[in-house]
Amino acid sequence: MTPNQVTLARVAAAFAAVALFTAGEKVLAADLSAVILTVAAIALDGVDGYLARTRGLATSLGAQLDILGDRVVENLFFTCFAVAGLISLWVPVLAARAGRTGFAANSMLETWWGKSLVASRASRAAYATLKCVCFCYLGLMLPLRHPAGVVSDATFGPWFAVWLSEPIAYWLLSAGQILTGVTVAFCLVRAIPVICEGRRYLAAEEPPRKPLAAAAIR
């Protein structure tokens, strides 16, 4: 497979995972399949880059497609869970705004701390792990939510109803919101170096201003 095909495959896996989480939320097999597809969608993010480097297939279009695939996957999951009422609607908005900085990260970062925070393997692995855990957790919590936002035993899947009580359900939903907050916060922190270092490019594009005295004479 080419790197671009891998990118498209992980986007397709994300759509399939969301479909299984939402359509089969009361079936354990559907949830487990959705978890596997979610892990695949996140894990394949490193595969396309590896193929591009090792096979000499790296292109500017492929790099942009890789980043675009990341944004599609992130916003797909966050929007799904926001619409379901598990997280705030501001989460996909903030994630999308922070994610836009990724398109210029590789070309704009020059400081060591910026590269370490945004482009290092440790940072990327930590963010990928957070996203994977967050998406899988929220997907499994979908059976706990009620269309009206109230937890009800009638909405529990059969494998939840055996042991789950309403107070525990509220704690689990709250834990999901905390996990989402940590994930989004890490995303915003990774955007800070790009914003800071990108200011000099914006300043360089500004036309020189004429002195006030000269402007008044003319």
CATH topology: Four Helix Bundle (Hemerythrin (Met), subunit A)
CATH architecture group name: Up-down Bundle
> Structural class given helices, strands, pairing?
mainly alpha
Q: Which radius of gyration do the C-alpha atoms yield?
A: 21 Å
Under the CATH scheme, which class?
Answer: Mainly Alpha
Give a verbal description of the structure:
The chain has 218 residues and is mainly alpha-helical. The chain has a single domain, classed as Four Helix Bundle (Hemerythrin (Met), subunit A). Helix content is 75%, strand content 0%. The protein is built from 10 helices and no strands. It has helices at residues 3-23, 28-54, 60-83, 90-99, 105-108, 112-118, 121-141, 158-161, 166-205, 212-217. Helix 3 (60-83) runs parallel beside helix 7. The longest helix has 40 residues, at 166-205. The protein is globular and about 50 Å long. The termini are far apart.
